[in-house]
Amino acid sequence: MPIRSRFPPLLASLALMAGLLTAPIAPAQTAPDRASIEAIIRDYLLKNPEVLQEAMTELERRQREAESAAIKRITGDAKGKLYISEHQSVVGNPEGDASVVVFFDYNCGYCKRGLADLQKLLDTDKKLRIILKEFPILSPGSRDASVVALALRPQFDKDKLWKFHSALLSTRGQVGKEQALGVAKDLGADMKKLETEMQSPKIALALEESKTLADALNISGTPSYVVAEDLIIGARGYDELARHVASWRKCRKAEC
Fold this sequence. Notes:
By secondary structure, the protein is of the alpha+beta class.
C-alpha cells in the first residue's frame, strides 16, 4: 500500500506522540493549523526515517493476519461450499471423519506427481473423504478436460469418477477434450448422454464456484490442498498430507 494512503493516520499518531493534539491551548492561543503540524511531522520523519519502516512492517503484519483470518473463515466452515457443494466430486468415504480438498488441473505436472499421494491416502485410510475441485488454469485444454469430468458425474459413481480422474492425470502429454472423451469411452460412458451433459449450465457454475473459492483462499497454483482447515500449496508428499489428517483426528488442528 502506498505510504501516502497511510499518511493521515500516521500524522495523527505522531502528532499525538508530540503532544500537539493533546496539549492544552490557552484562550489567547489558536490551535496549530494542519500545515504546521505536517511540517513538524515531516521534520520528525526526516530525522527518524525508521519510523516509516516500522509502520509499514506493522501494516504488513496486520494484513497477513487479516488474510489468514479470512482464509480460516472459509476452511473452518464445515457447511460451506468448500466442503458441501452439488458441483464437486467426492471420492473415498463420503461419510469420512476427515476431508482432503484438492484443487487441480489435468495438465499440471505437479498434480500428476501428487496423484500417487492421494491414491496412497485412499488405499490406507478408509475413513477419509477426498473432495475434487476442478481448477483448470493452465490451458483451454485443461478446461475442456474439466468439462468432460464434470459432465460424467450424473452417470459415474465415485469409484468410476476416481478411475477417470486417475487415468486422465496419468495421460502423457497435453490433455484436452479428445483425451478426456477417450478415457470416458474406455470406462464405459454413454457418450450421447455425456455430450448432452457437457452443454449443461451446471458445468459453468461448477467451474465458477471453484474459481471463486480459489480466489478467496488466495490459491493461484495447483495442486493446492485444504487439510485440517489448513491450506497446503504444492505437491508436498503423502507424509505431510497424512500427518495433517492424523492431527485433525487427534486435536482438530493441522498441528497438535
